[in-house]
Amino acid sequence: MVFENQINELDSIMFCFFGLTLKELEDVIAGTGKEKYRARQLYRWVYNKGIYDFSMMDNIPKSLRVLFSDMFDMETINLFESIASVDGSIKLSFHTKDGNIIESVLIPEKQRLTLCVSSQIGCRMACSFCVTGKIGFIRNLETHEIVEQIIGAKKFLNGSPESPWEKITNIVFMGMGEPLDNFENVMRAIEIMKEPLGLDFSKRRITVSTVGLLGGLKRLQPGTAGIAISLNAADEQKRTEIMPINRMYPIRDIMDFARHYKGSQRERITFEYVLLKGFNDSLEDAKMLYELLKGVRCKINLIPFNESPYSQFKTPDNKTVDQFHAYLIDKYMTAIVRNSRGPDVNAACGQLGMAYLVSKKTKAS
Ligand code: SAH
Prior knowledge:
Blueprint: H1 4-8, E1 15-16, H2 22-31, H3 37-48, H4 62-71, E2 72-73, E3 77-84, E4 90-96, E5 101-109, E6 112-116, E7 120-122, H5 131-135, E8 137-140, H6 143-158, E9 170-173, H7 183-194, E10 206-210, H8 214-219, E11 226-230, H9 236-242, H10 251-260, E12 269-275, H11 283-293, E13 298-304, H12 318-330, E14 335-337, H13 354-364
Parallel strand pairs: 1-2, 6-9, 9-10, 10-11, 11-12, 12-13, 13-14
Antiparallel strand pairs: 3-4, 4-5, 5-6, 7-8
Helix pairs in contact: 2-3, 6-7, 11-12
Bound molecules: S-adenosyl-L-homocysteine.
């Protein structure tokens, strides 16, 4: 059993509560000789009711509450900054125990409140237009560090009585990092997010966004979560130019996967396409994108590029974006323009992790 060693040494070991699936929590508790059903009680208190202090859990005997508070670490990342953008999105920055920074973004949109979470610190993919890609890879996030971004955001909302939002409705893995490059931890985090006794997110409310790591995509069971693939160019050479990973997983292999993807009726793959001025935003590019995707059950998210001092690319003007969009709509493709949120506070797509680059620059000068 996974936790055998830890349980034998309980005196010295603490478990990160937010890294444990319900089944694992049951095993940990059973390993102490206590009743397994306490795990379900804990899940309800913590995830459902938002009570993180064991002393308040009044259907659990006092001695057990003491044991649990010695056993479980309930906070491994801590929120040190929240910055609101003029458009309503809020960037949350957390410190990890090893001194790194994790960023997440709360994005209100009509009836939805989406939390954009990070899966890694930095990223290995090195996409030329993305700020996080410029940092390079620092490390994978642990399962608990992924789940705790949601808990931290919930605590933040509870502590902001003026906020009209009560509940996070959607989770997207579009923050820092490549989620399928941290497969195991991301899958465990998704399992925890979906647990009906806990956070209870349905698979339709969780989206994993990937550069298209086909090994991971093939391992991902249909029904785990929504899939978004960052295509960003419809031509192999162009895609390789901005996304080096295209050498390993070229467009033709991604399309082969997409054509054979067996999701249920409502599970269409989303293709993301960042519009870069003068690079992939012409009508010719729109035509290529249409030729590539026609006949594939999918949605297209067009994201006008968010500029940053760390990339030479520019945002296309609205007219170009509209023309590109109109071309696809005219061909009966499902396409929407996603103006990504929070650019004024560096909270938009591909802008997370700026703090790392700023500190590098300051150190260098
Ligand atoms: N690694 C994953 C998730 C993180 S990036 C992925 O690539 O999908 C999330 C989305 O933001 C991707 O579609 C990416 O292409 C897009 N993106 C990155 N930098 C951007 C920028 N500066 N402006 C707009 N979108 C950007």
